[in-house]
Design goal:
Length: 232
């Protein structure tokens, strides 16, 4: 029980550290800093992909422009239609063919217009993002400093708690402490708790009968993996 008592003491002190870390993690200073950091980290890839998209759209527009020129040239061949008719050509057939080319030209023109609008929108998105990056870069240093200041303002308190924790930890077997620290790193807190009406205080699971004799020294809950114990 004395080892358990030591780890419980440790946890009580550690709760203060946990709270302090929570205050830092949930602070506006950190939120702003992390948001900017995340944005700036992802921005180059987003800019690149917009650039690639714009390039692909431009290439597509160029290809369509070439198709348009070709169709226009084809239409030019119908200029000497009168001569062809005089030569005995079937006017109905050529009219139909010419109409097909005209329809095709209309279709290509519409596609080019849609592409042009898309290119414009992509360019605008790129410019907007670029402006946002510049603005974020300006804010980033300030946000980093503010978060650093906040952390520094808590450094004294943190140091005191850590000193106390170190003193208490001397009474805890290394293996037990290591196990505790591992769970702590997984953001589990609290880690140790007394049984509540014979069940795990955290998840409500009933410890197996075979473990009953070891409960006063504390066992790991099979379900939530926290340390549970029975109070004497
Ligand atoms: Zn449990």
């Amino acid at each position: 029980m004395s080892q358990l008592k030591a780890i419980l003491n440790y946890q009580t002190m550690d709760a203060k550290l946990y709270e302090l870390e929570k205050v830092l993690a949930e602070s506006e200073e950190r939120k702003t800093y992390v948001k900017l950091q995340k944005f700036l980290k992802g921005a180059p890839e987003r800019l690149d992909s917009l650039e690639v998209k714009a390039q692909a759209l431009r290439a597509e527009a160029d290809a369509l422009a070439a198709q348009y020129a070709q169709a226009e040239a084809t239409l030019g061949e119908f200029d000497n239609l009168e001569e062809m008719i005089k030569g005995g050509a079937d006017i109905g057939f050529y009219k139909k063919e010419a109409q097909k080319v005209v329809d095709r030209l209309k279709k290509i023109r519409a596609d080019i217009n849609a592409l042009t609008a898309n290119i414009k929108a992509t360019d605008e998105e790129y410019q907007k993002l670029k402006k946002q990056v510049i603005s974020a870069q300006k804010q980033y240093e300030d946000a980093a400093n503010k978060y650093k200041e906040l952390k520094e303002s808590k450094a004294g308190e943190r140091g005191e708690i850590e000193k106390e924790l170190k003193a208490i930890s001397k009474e805890i077997p290394a293996e037990m402490l290591a196990k505790y620290q591992t769970k702590r790193k997984e953001k589990m807190f609290p880690i140790v708790g007394a049984l509540n009406f014979g069940r795990c205080w955290f998840c409500g699971m009933e410890p197996p009968i075979a473990a009953q004799s070891r409960l006063s020294a504390g066992i790991e809950c099979d379900n939530c993996h926290r340390v549970i114990y029975k109070e004497d």
